[in-house]
Amino acid sequence: MYWLKTRLQSFFHYKDLLVQLVIRDIKIKYRRSILGYLWSVLNPLLIMLVMTAVFSQLFNMRAPNYPVYFLTGQVMFNFMNEATTMASNSIVLNAALLKKSYVPKYIFPVAKVSSSLVNLLFSLGALWIVMAITGIKLTLWFLLFPVVILELYIFSLGLGMFLAQAMVFFRDVQYLYGVAVTVWMYLTPIIYTKDILPAWLQNVLNWNPMYYYVEQFRCTMLYGQMPEPFLVLGGIGFALAFLLFGLWAFRRSQHKFILYI
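-> structure tokens emitted (261 positions)
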């Protein structure tokens, strides 16, 4: 408890630095871009148009309101991918600052995941536009979508902190993780529906954390219903497990960072 209290006090002490790091990341992403923040809306819309044409027309993919079905999966997976990938490089890229002055090292992966969260909020604009055009009727369960995003944020933070400390010692992590994320995306029902998979692959989905977050999000946004209890419990369980594991790995190795960066 004392360690947790100390960390929380340190976190609030450096909250202004965290805010500045998040603002810096967002500005860098859209620097010298003519459309700027509009790309966060246009990019998922353009990808959705292509994927809808390919999978709902050419491959005759049957899903309720395929544009919204695809977008609900895409924005969630893209957030996780961006957040964890950026977090994995957060310590290495800030080596100069860490060598010059004392800054809590966990601030950097937290800032990367938080800036990705801001980008996700922009991307939700694209989803809401498509929902309005396709006539999706919102229910009270829509109000639960921030809870699902919070679960995914915690999960991504835990995974990001683990990758950040691993990247310090093994630079190959970035390449291995890139391949793993590609496989992960195809093992998540984003462009296809779960029912087209063979039974053994459907069972594999139970070990895929992103399945729980994508399906919860679809329940609140597309289906207008309460997510099933096993989806909620699975999402919370994976989030807490990865957060605790990421914190443990990061805390265990952070005193060695200065020797390798």
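The CA atoms of residues 149 and 213 lie 8 Å apart.
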